[in-house]
Amino acid sequence: MKRSNLIHIVAATAFSVLLICPALTPQGTKMAPDAKTMTIEGAVRDLACPVQNPAGSATSFSLQCTLDCVKHGSPIIILTKAGLIYFPISENMPDSGQREKMMPFIGKYVQATGPVFTRTGTHAIAITQIKELKSVHIDTDAR
Predict the structure, then answer these.
(1) Per-residue pLDDT tens for 86-141?
(2) Average pLDDT of the chain?
(3) CA 108 – CA 12 distance, rounded (Å)
(4) Residue 47: is it exposed, middle or buried by C-beta count within 10 angstroms (0-12/13-18/19+)?
(5) Which of these, 87, 45, 42, lies nearest to 62 by C-alpha position?
(6) Residue 79 burial (CB count, 10 A)
(7) Less crowded by CB within 10 Å, the N or C end of the chain?
(8) How far apart are CA 26 and CA 121, in angstroms?
(9) Are 93 and 86 a contacting pair, CB within 8 Å?
(10) What would the mean pLDDT of 18-23 be, rounded to a whole number?
């Protein structure tokens, strides 16, 4: 086979894969298949502290307060640097708790990917991938 023919075949195959792959990528959830998948970054925290203490942020907060609040049942959220709060939800209906999945990330700065939802100012994410971003410095001794 000539080199030029082989290059055309490889190029056509690569182009076909690029066209097909987005169609194979799972989007949305079972209940909302058209939901947009996004990646967000922020601190995994309790809900009460950032709502009641505006000085607390995604990169400066009391880890002990966060741990105490979570221990006592406060909902777990992801707080972005922009101040948006995302509630972790499941991809399924009925919804199932995400607490156990989120516990290893309490007090850590993470990158989470999944379908996102907004309703009247409330944000939620059905996390399909999550990882700690160790390169982001957070001050967890802040009060």
Answers:
(1) 999 998 888 888 999 999 999 999 999 999 999 999 999 999 999 999 999 999 88
(2) 84
(3) 44
(4) middle
(5) 45
(6) 24
(7) N
(8) 26
(9) no
(10) 48
Q: What is the pLDDT of residue 23?
A: 46
CATH top-level class of 27-132: mainly beta
Q: In which residue are the tokens 């023919």 written?
A: 5
Amino acid at 124: A
d(CA 3, CA 41): 46
Query: pTM score > 0.90 for this model?
Result: no
The pair of three-digit structure tokens given for residue 104, joined into one six-digit string: 């290893």
**Which residues make Cβ contacts (< 8 Å) with residue 83, sequence separation at least 6?**
57, 58
What's the CA gap between 72 and 66, in Å, rounded? 10
Q: Are 38 and 80 in contact (CB under 8 A)?
A: no
CA 74 to chain centre: 19
Whole-number pLDDT of residue 12: 52
Which of 1, 79, 15, 72 has the alpha carbon at shortest distance from 47? Answer: 79
